[in-house]
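Recap slide: Type II secretion system protein GspF domain-containing protein, sequence and predicted structure.
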Amino acid sequence: MSQALERQKGVFSDFYINMVRSAEVTGRVEEVMGFLADYLEKEVHLVSRVRNALIYPIVVIVLFIGVAFLLLAVVLPQIEPIFKESNVAIPLFTRILLATGVFLKQWWIFVVLFVGLLLALLFNYLGTKEGRAVADDVRMRLPFFRKLFERLYVARFAESLSVLIKGGVPIVQSIEIAGHTIDNVLYQEVLHEVAEEVRRGELLSRALEKQEHFFPPLVGQMVGVGETTGRLDELLDRISRFYSSQVDDVVSNLVELIQPALILGIGVLSGLLFASILLPLYNLVQTF
C-alpha cells in the first residue's frame, strides 16, 4: 500500500506514506489508518474555523481598499482645485492624500501591474525551500502567533510520535517520521538534530530540553517521566491532548477578537480618511 501511495506524492504527503509504511512493518495498519483519519479531521476542522473567521474581515478589508482607492483617485483630485483657488489651509495629512490621489489617477495602471508582479514574485519565492524557511522563521517571530504555532507543532509531534512508538517503530525513525507532520522547516531541522542526538545515545528528554526555543520545558519533563516509567507513548499522548486543548482555546479567542479588532482598525482609518476631506471643506465654509 505504501508503494502505491508513494506514486501519488501530489496527493499524499511524506508523513502519510511513512506512517502507512511503518504500519505495514508492525502490523498495525488498522490503528494507523484510524489515527490518520482523526488527524486529517482535526486539520480540516482547525483550518475551516480559522478560514470562516477570516471571511468577513477579508471582505471588509477589500471593500475598504476599494472605497479608499475611489476617494484617492477620483474624489480628491476633483476637489483639489477648489482648495487651491480659495487659499484654504490644508492639513498635512490631506496634502499627502491629495498628492497620492494625483499620482494614482495618472499611474494607476502601472501601480496595479507593479503590485501584481510583486505578489507573483513573492508567491513564487515562498514556493521555494528557501522561501518556506524564511516564511516559517517570520511566523515563529510574531509575538502572538509564535505561541499558537508552537503549541500546534508540539501537539502534532507528540501525537505522531506516540502512535509510532506504540507501533513498535524504532525511536530514531519515529522522530524523523514525526517531524514530517510539522509543516515548518525550522521544526523539521530541529527534530532531525534531536534524532541524531538520540542515535548517539542521548535521552530524548535531554535532546528536547536543549531546544528550549521550540519545545516548552514541560515537554522535556513529561518525556523524561515517560522514559523513566517505561510509559513514553502514554505521556506523549497526554502532551498531545494538553497542547491540543490549548490550541483550541487560542483559536477560539482569536476568532472572537479578530472581528472587533478589525472593526476598530477600519473605523480609525475611515475616520482619518473622511476627516482629511471634511476638515478642508469646513475651513472653506468658514471663509464665506
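The chain is about 85% helix and 0% strand.
The domain at 2-286 is CATH 1.20.81.30 (Receptor-associated Protein).
(End of recap.)
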